[in-house]
């Protein structure tokens, strides 16, 4: 399994980096939209949709909703002035606080939404839609002054989350003893969490030194720490929904990683939270 994970990562990471820096923002947005539609298709399992046709309609509706929001945006306007971006980012920060409460009180919290397809769909919307707009807002950031500024920011948050995930995995395997959330994901440990934070700190230091981020160190540290913690929350939240749906992986599209949601679960929380803190709070 580890071999397949490494091979897939070595293939996908260069593709993502090339897309970040070589594709125009709107083309990159369309690519992200396709990823979100695939995520919505997989989320259908959490909402109790058992047929592929039902899940396909959910994916189509998600894509249609995002396209309508994109088309409603005026041209040549600062993205941060648009409610289509500001509202989803604020909602994301509220949703992930709520998700934390659901995790802390699980399995008692599951009684509230276990048999509610409507709530499960709402949770999916609050997970996938702000993720799309977080990606869009970061990629558009500073575009008129420097077309690569947003690409650097997206690369930073992606490497931060991927590095944290890898550090947590290896530290957990080597030193894991105390369970982080045994009722949701027995393999995650507090030692792994510490390893993930240390890995993220190293990446943050190196990236801020060598890459043109142009931000005060204390702001970068705060945003990065919160984003890493949010990424862990995103991972645990998807694990909670998978446990309730009684499935191991959200899909089988990516060898060694499962489905699209299995690959982006950490980013669905980290990206909008990081974007919200960076662009709205600071």
From TrEMBL:
The chain crosses the membrane at residues 28-44, 56-75, 87-106, 118-138, 150-171, 192-210, 216-234. Pathway: Lipid metabolism; Phospholipid metabolism; CDP-diacylglycerol biosynthesis; CDP-diacylglycerol from sn-glycerol 3-phosphate: step 3/3. It is an enzyme of class 2 (transferase). InterPro entries: PC_trans (IPR000374). GO terms for molecular function: phosphatidate cytidylyltransferase activity. GO terms for biological process: CDP-diacylglycerol biosynthetic process. Belongs to the CDS family. PANTHER family: PHOSPHATIDATE CYTIDYLYLTRANSFERASE. This is Phosphatidate cytidylyltransferase.
């Amino acid at each position: 399994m580890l071999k397949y994970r490494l091979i897939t990562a070595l293939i996908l990471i260069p593709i993502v980096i090339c897309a970040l820096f070589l594709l125009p923002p709107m083309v990159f947005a369309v690519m992200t939209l396709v990823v979100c539609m695939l995520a919505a298709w997989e989320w259908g399992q959490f909402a109790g949709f058992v047929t592929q046709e039902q899940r396909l309609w959910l994916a189509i509706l998600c894509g249609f909703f995002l396209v309508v929001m994109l088309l409603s945006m005026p041209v040549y306007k600062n993205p941060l002035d648009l409610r289509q971006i500001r509202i989803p980012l604020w909602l994301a920060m509220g949703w992930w606080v709520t998700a934390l409460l659901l995790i802390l009180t699980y399995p008692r919290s599951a009684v509230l939404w276990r048999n509610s397809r409507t709530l499960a769909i709402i949770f999916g919307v609050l997970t996938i839609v702000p993720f799309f707009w977080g990606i869009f807002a970061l990629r558009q950031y500073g575009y008129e002054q420097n077309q690569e500024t947003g690409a650097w920011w997206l690369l930073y948050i992606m490497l931060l989350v991927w590095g944290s995930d890898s550090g947590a995995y290896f530290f957990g395997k080597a030193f894991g003893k105390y369970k982080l959330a045994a009722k949701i994901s027995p393999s995650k440990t507090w030692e792994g969490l510490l390893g993930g934070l240390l890995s993220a700190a190293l990446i943050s230091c190196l990236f801020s030194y060598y890459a043109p981020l142009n931000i005060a160190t204390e702001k970068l540290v705060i945003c990065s720490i919160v984003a890493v913690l949010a990424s862990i929350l995103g991972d645990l939240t998807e694990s909670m929904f998978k446990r309730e749906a009684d499935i191991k992986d959200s899909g089988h599209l990516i060898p060694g990683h499962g489905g699209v949601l299995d690959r982006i679960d950490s980013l669905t929380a980290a990206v909008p939270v990081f974007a919200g803190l960076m662009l709205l709070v600071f």
